[in-house]
Amino acid sequence: MTDLTNLTVAQIRDGHRAGDFSAVEVAEAFNANVAGAKALNAFIVETPEHALAAAKQADADRAAGTLKPLSGVPIGMKDLFATNGVQTTAASHMLEGFVPRYESTVSQKLWDAGAGMLGKLNLDQFAMGSSNETSYFGNVISPWRRKDGGPNLKEGAALAPGGSSGGSSAAIAARLCPAATGTDTGGSIRQPAAFTGISGIKPTYGRCSRWGIVAFASSLDQAGPMARDVRDCAIMLQNMAGFDAKDATSLDLPVPDWEAALSGDLKGKKVGIPREYRLDGIDPDIDAMWDAGIAMLKDAGAEVVEISLPHTKYALPAYYIIAPAEASSNLARYDGVRYGLRDLPQGAGLQDMYAATRAEGFGPEVKRRIMIGTYVLSAGFYDAYYTQAQKVRALISRDFTAAFETCDVILAPTAPSAAFGLGEKTADPLAMYLNDVFAVPASLAGLPAMSVPAALNREELPLGLQIIGKAFDEQGVLNAGLAIEERASFTARAEKWW
Amino acid sequence: MAIDQATVRKIASLARIAISDAEATAMEGELNGILGWVEQLGEVDVTGVEPMTAVIPNTLRLRDDVVDADPLTGGNRRDDVLANAPEPQHGFFGVPKVIE
């Protein structure tokens, strides 16, 4: 019998529907893989009983002829989504032990669609990070390992799974779950997908409800799926998206059947190649992968045009004003009064309790961003920093609008490098921030964007290509992703060492 | 505009985060590094550009003006609201005594 944990979401769904195997068999196989992969530290909480209960329901539904879109499919849930009765921490000490009494809209939709939960996936603390090293519960370790990478790169060293959705990416790459939820504020779905050789899509801002997702930067935060291929991303996304009255920025639009309309035929489509994304001194493997991707899309029938996004270099600094500003405001709620940690020193008053609680409950990166955000929003600096950044953001958005007059989708690398080693970038916050140089512009403009695995580099680590689409055109993004997937034939996977 | 130790302490106080002397020293360097880097935004000509307020055009809705319009977030859920409070007392959030 085939190993059920090698199946994709679509294969599990269809195989279960056809009676090739039971949902309980699938859940048990994934539960066993999760239990055997502690070394990866991908899960903060494991919930095998949840996966099993959903599987039993799926088997009963099959017998009764009432199957749902994701019946029989167990998934991983990023620990940023509030789950009723299951600890939700955002990988922070602040929320350690927090057990929500409600369910996030996105996770509820997935359960309503028949999916089961294998556990809550580790991430960077409050989703702030690009390597999973800011998690209070220890970093996730990528299942991938370097082959000989030359004198500077230690062979076999523990690698970052990317971040912030690093538990999601590592778990999918290691076959601990066929798909998982992620969230993307400035690349947190796409960069970890690229680092681990899987796919992930951040939809248009507003497609997925933010209700019940621990807030980081509300004008940027957007949930999306991560999975092994494009079809699975489409299936997951159409079961996560949809209007929600409880999120003021939720888009009141019908959810298309993205899976049904998948097509890798790009005849008549134009693909834009942004010249500003050709960075001086970038890893030649990245440029080679990008060129190969251009050839693949031409082969799929697309016309390739050069485009310009002139304000690209200002996206990252604008992001590192806007995101911390929103974070400093959102994270003001953690005060030791209503939920989460409280640190009350002997004889302390209310103000001292706030300060002690927040000193104890937040990690260094979270504190750094709250401090930056507080500074740029403070009296006398607001216009120079925050207003200026929001103006630059408007210009970045205009760049995309102008570019999309001459193309349908944009092709670029997802990240400027392959996965780096744990500890290699922690000393310098700025070096870590630069990881998201290609991901942040689409986030600032609220556009749908996805990463698909495209190649292995010289160390035999995966590299991802990014497709950015027009607002609401997830279909165009998925279809271009599929065209690459069909031609890149990326089948490499991490050898099991854990 | 570089920030000094006193400014770091002021920001920490505004953010309600207690910091030690060692942390303030480390933070001074890190914050100056980040703020120095974002200064480059000043180069961008933003004449006549309105700051972005909504990334995707959307209209703000008003919910029906009724009590408990959404049962999921409606009232009468005191126990749920207090379930995760560090120190609930008599159906309220407990805080240290405040004397002004």
TrEMBL record, chain A:
<dbReference type="Pfam" id="PF01425">
    <property type="entry name" value="Amidase"/>
</dbReference>
<keyword id="KW-0067">ATP-binding</keyword>
<comment type="function">
    <text>Allows the formation of correctly charged Gln-tRNA(Gln) through the transamidation of misacylated Glu-tRNA(Gln) in organisms which lack glutaminyl-tRNA synthetase. The reaction takes place in the presence of glutamine and ATP through an activated gamma-phospho-Glu-tRNA(Gln).</text>
</comment>
<comment type="similarity">
    <text>Belongs to the amidase family. GatA subfamily.</text>
</comment>
<feature type="active site" description="Acyl-ester intermediate">
    <location>
        <position position="188"/>
    </location>
</feature>
<keyword id="KW-0648">Protein biosynthesis</keyword>
<dbReference type="InterPro" id="IPR023631">
    <property type="entry name" value="Amidase_dom"/>
</dbReference>
<comment type="subunit">
    <text>Heterotrimer of A, B and C subunits.</text>
</comment>
<dbReference type="InterPro" id="IPR004412">
    <property type="entry name" value="GatA"/>
</dbReference>
<feature type="active site" description="Charge relay system">
    <location>
        <position position="78"/>
    </location>
</feature>
<keyword id="KW-0547">Nucleotide-binding</keyword>
<dbReference type="GO" id="GO:0016740">
    <property type="term" value="F:transferase activity"/>
</dbReference>
<dbReference type="GO" id="GO:0030956">
    <property type="term" value="C:glutamyl-tRNA(Gln) amidotransferase complex"/>
</dbReference>
<feature type="active site" description="Charge relay system">
    <location>
        <position position="164"/>
    </location>
</feature>
<keyword id="KW-0436">Ligase</keyword>
<keyword id="KW-0808">Transferase</keyword>
<dbReference type="InterPro" id="IPR036928">
    <property type="entry name" value="AS_sf"/>
</dbReference>
<dbReference type="GO" id="GO:0005524">
    <property type="term" value="F:ATP binding"/>
</dbReference>
<dbReference type="GO" id="GO:0006412">
    <property type="term" value="P:translation"/>
</dbReference>
<dbReference type="GO" id="GO:0050567">
    <property type="term" value="F:glutaminyl-tRNA synthase (glutamine-hydrolyzing) activity"/>
</dbReference>
<protein>
    <recommendedName>
        <fullName>Glutamyl-tRNA(Gln) amidotransferase subunit A</fullName>
        <ecNumber>6.3.5.7</ecNumber>
    </recommendedName>
</protein>
<dbReference type="InterPro" id="IPR000120">
    <property type="entry name" value="Amidase"/>
</dbReference>
UniProtKB/TrEMBL annotation, chain B:
<keyword id="KW-0067">ATP-binding</keyword>
<comment type="similarity">
    <text>Belongs to the GatC family.</text>
</comment>
<dbReference type="Pfam" id="PF02686">
    <property type="entry name" value="GatC"/>
</dbReference>
<dbReference type="InterPro" id="IPR036113">
    <property type="entry name" value="Asp/Glu-ADT_sf_sub_c"/>
</dbReference>
<keyword id="KW-0436">Ligase</keyword>
<keyword id="KW-0808">Transferase</keyword>
<dbReference type="GO" id="GO:0016740">
    <property type="term" value="F:transferase activity"/>
</dbReference>
<dbReference type="GO" id="GO:0050567">
    <property type="term" value="F:glutaminyl-tRNA synthase (glutamine-hydrolyzing) activity"/>
</dbReference>
<protein>
    <recommendedName>
        <fullName>Aspartyl/glutamyl-tRNA(Asn/Gln) amidotransferase subunit C</fullName>
        <ecNumber>6.3.5.-</ecNumber>
    </recommendedName>
</protein>
<dbReference type="GO" id="GO:0005524">
    <property type="term" value="F:ATP binding"/>
</dbReference>
<comment type="subunit">
    <text>Heterotrimer of A, B and C subunits.</text>
</comment>
<keyword id="KW-0547">Nucleotide-binding</keyword>
<dbReference type="InterPro" id="IPR003837">
    <property type="entry name" value="GatC"/>
</dbReference>
<feature type="region of interest" description="Disordered">
    <location>
        <begin position="73"/>
        <end position="95"/>
    </location>
</feature>
<dbReference type="GO" id="GO:0006412">
    <property type="term" value="P:translation"/>
</dbReference>
<comment type="function">
    <text>Allows the formation of correctly charged Asn-tRNA(Asn) or Gln-tRNA(Gln) through the transamidation of misacylated Asp-tRNA(Asn) or Glu-tRNA(Gln) in organisms which lack either or both of asparaginyl-tRNA or glutaminyl-tRNA synthetases. The reaction takes place in the presence of glutamine and ATP through an activated phospho-Asp-tRNA(Asn) or phospho-Glu-tRNA(Gln).</text>
</comment>
<keyword id="KW-0648">Protein biosynthesis</keyword>
<dbReference type="GO" id="GO:0070681">
    <property type="term" value="P:glutaminyl-tRNAGln biosynthesis via transamidation"/>
</dbReference>
<dbReference type="GO" id="GO:0006450">
    <property type="term" value="P:regulation of translational fidelity"/>
</dbReference>
